[in-house]
Amino acid sequence: MKNKFTKLEKSWILYDVGNSAFILMVTTLIPIIFKANALNNGVEESVSTAYWGYALTISTIIVAILGPTLGRLADEKDRKKKFFTTFLLMGVLGCALLGFIANWIAFLLVFLVAKVGFSTTNVFYDSMLTDITNDDRSDVISSHGFAWGYIGSCIPFIAVIALSLLHDNIGISTNLSNIISFIVIALWWFLCSTPLLRLYTQEHYIVREKKDSVFSVFKGLGETFNKIKKNKSMFYFLIAFFLYIDAVQTIITMSTAYGTDVGIDSTQMLLALLLTQIIAFPASIVFGKLSRKFRTRRLIEIDIIGYCCIVLFAVQLDQAWEFWALAVAVALFQGSIQALSRSYFSRLVPKDNSNEYFGIFDIFGKGAAALGTFMMALVTQITRSSRVGVFALLILLVLGLIMMLKIPENDADLKKGM
After folding, report:
1. What is the distance between the alpha carbons of residues 102 and 33, in angstroms, rounded to a whole number?
2. What's the rounded Cα separation, in Å, for the pair 348 and 311?
3. Whole-model pTM over 0.85
4. What confidence tens digit (pLDDT) does each residue in 176-219 have?
5. How far apart are CA 82 and CA 85, in angstroms?
6. φ, ψ dihedrals at 385, nearest 5°
């Protein structure tokens, strides 16, 4: 395998650098700001955590509806970039507006818009993998996307953290600090997207004799679901992915809310999560290289086992050093489980209508965690304990591992010439 990446591959990787800055804010500052606003309005910590979880769940449901339907439409010639651009702007503008909003309910609603924009954009971005590289390189390219996303997103994040911690020293109010922070992240996201917008061309597409009506779109989706059910490898993988990635995404998005509930200082959490980004960079690249020697599926199974251990450790967490240890553990598996799942699925799907399949994939995927966030939010609200809510995620991981072990031998498992 040639080590050099093409300009198109680099531009695709660079987009991950841009959008990762937003998702880093989702796992750090955004829930902290939201919970502070909610607390000022007399809302209990556990209740605000539940509201945060419900908001994430609602965003996932919306994307679950939009992803496959728009994905089918985007499989037609030259449509993928148009949909990508539309939802990119929706996410970027939503992110920029968050700093101007003080009311906790309005803040949650605008965040919902930004999160839907982010997650729907990822449907089209993930499916671009089949256009920008080949099957032999997909594991490595996908891993580098996550790896550089982790390390690259630290650049604006460090600036935002510095502003958040030192704004009083330079005579800036907390509100102005928040406004500047969200605008910086939004600009970073958009600027990192411009090379991909300029270079990307849709190579794989379907030519349909008639334009899709609403009825034909849903009929086509039904046919696609039937094809997936007949393909045992794809069907079992999607069920497994639905289970384990819901738990993974819940851990990512609910980490700071959980840390706040168990009494971890916000500064300690932010610095620990910054360490996660830094360690996840080499960890993702290492797993990408390991995929040349070992089956991608087996590496995913190792990641799931790693996350089972993470959940068990998180349940008893109540000290700052334990949160730091947890951050390091998450960093080892976070990038690889997402990157290798994406590239493994890209080898299972037909290339010409990959967007429709990735729309279904994204119901369970990168911007998801519907079941996980809802389960954690509901259990937390019922028991008044975030610890019990976290422990419930172990069920998803174990079931996901069982389904991975049921996947039959398939072409995506075969070692290609690297």
Report:
1. 9
2. 30
3. no
4. 988 999 999 999 999 999 999 999 988 766 666 566 555 666 67
5. 5
6. -140, 120
